[in-house]
Amino acid sequence: MSKSRAEAAAGAPGIILRYLQEQNRPYSAQDVFGNLQKEHGLGKAAVVKALDQLAQQGKIKEKTYGKQKIYFADQDQFDTVSDADLHSLDAKIVALTDKVQSLQQNCRHMEAELKELTSALTTPEMQKEIQELKKECAHYIERLKNIKAATNHVTPEEREEVYRERQKYCKEWRKRKRMTTELCDAILEGYPKSKKQFFIFLKQDRDTDEYVIGITDVVDTGVHCNSLLSVAVFKVSQ
């Protein structure tokens, strides 16, 4: 046994007696060893020996439950506690419990605040970001200045007119595209060849007849529906 372990074993009875009196609750030898080993460096054999010694001296009480022994402080050494004292102690326990909960809540708030501050930018980082934002702001100010200095501004009325015209022609384009698609589908129902051959069939006349437009152009632009109908019906009927 090392010198430090021997010194700890020699002082074990006093340490354990004081511990049991302060806690005033029953413990097994394993519990006492687990609670005091880290702080005082007591070995389990020294703890068991000290507990048996204290029990034999009558300084603590010992109870046996099966194969396990339980040790606790001698209750005769404590003053008798009245019901009023017990109620007072219960009230103190409640007050202290509330205080602990309040402190724990404050601790959580402070931890959250610390985490937020830790994740925030440092002063040098903020200064750098401010400079970058100032440069970006100056760039936009210069762009705005150039836009205001331009002479080819579009008036709100002109812009609205352009929007109306666009909506008008888009609507007409969709209408004609739909008509052309429906027309082609109707023709293909009675056409003896494939759809691909039908497209090729119409495309061949493009170079020889100025009034005929290929089907691919019709689908894309939605124009010349009547010309396509006339030519397609004429050719299919031949």
TrEMBL record:
<dbReference type="Pfam" id="PF18517">
    <property type="entry name" value="LZ3wCH"/>
</dbReference>
<protein>
    <recommendedName>
        <fullName>Homologous-pairing protein 2 homolog</fullName>
    </recommendedName>
</protein>
<keyword id="KW-0233">DNA recombination</keyword>
<dbReference type="GO" id="GO:0000709">
    <property type="term" value="P:meiotic joint molecule formation"/>
</dbReference>
<feature type="domain" description="Homologous-pairing protein 2 winged helix">
    <location>
        <begin position="12"/>
        <end position="73"/>
    </location>
</feature>
<dbReference type="GO" id="GO:0000794">
    <property type="term" value="C:condensed nuclear chromosome"/>
</dbReference>
<dbReference type="GO" id="GO:0010774">
    <property type="term" value="P:meiotic strand invasion involved in reciprocal meiotic recombination"/>
</dbReference>
<dbReference type="GO" id="GO:0007129">
    <property type="term" value="P:homologous chromosome pairing at meiosis"/>
</dbReference>
<feature type="domain" description="Leucine zipper with capping helix">
    <location>
        <begin position="154"/>
        <end position="199"/>
    </location>
</feature>
<keyword id="KW-0539">Nucleus</keyword>
<feature type="coiled-coil region">
    <location>
        <begin position="86"/>
        <end position="150"/>
    </location>
</feature>
<comment type="similarity">
    <text>Belongs to the HOP2 family.</text>
</comment>
<dbReference type="InterPro" id="IPR036388">
    <property type="entry name" value="WH-like_DNA-bd_sf"/>
</dbReference>
<dbReference type="InterPro" id="IPR040661">
    <property type="entry name" value="LZ3wCH"/>
</dbReference>
<dbReference type="Pfam" id="PF07106">
    <property type="entry name" value="WHD_TBPIP"/>
</dbReference>
<dbReference type="GO" id="GO:0120230">
    <property type="term" value="F:recombinase activator activity"/>
</dbReference>
<keyword id="KW-0469">Meiosis</keyword>
<keyword id="KW-0175">Coiled coil</keyword>
<dbReference type="GO" id="GO:0003690">
    <property type="term" value="F:double-stranded DNA binding"/>
</dbReference>
<dbReference type="InterPro" id="IPR036390">
    <property type="entry name" value="WH_DNA-bd_sf"/>
</dbReference>
<dbReference type="GO" id="GO:0120231">
    <property type="term" value="C:DNA recombinase auxiliary factor complex"/>
</dbReference>
<dbReference type="InterPro" id="IPR010776">
    <property type="entry name" value="Hop2_WH_dom"/>
</dbReference>
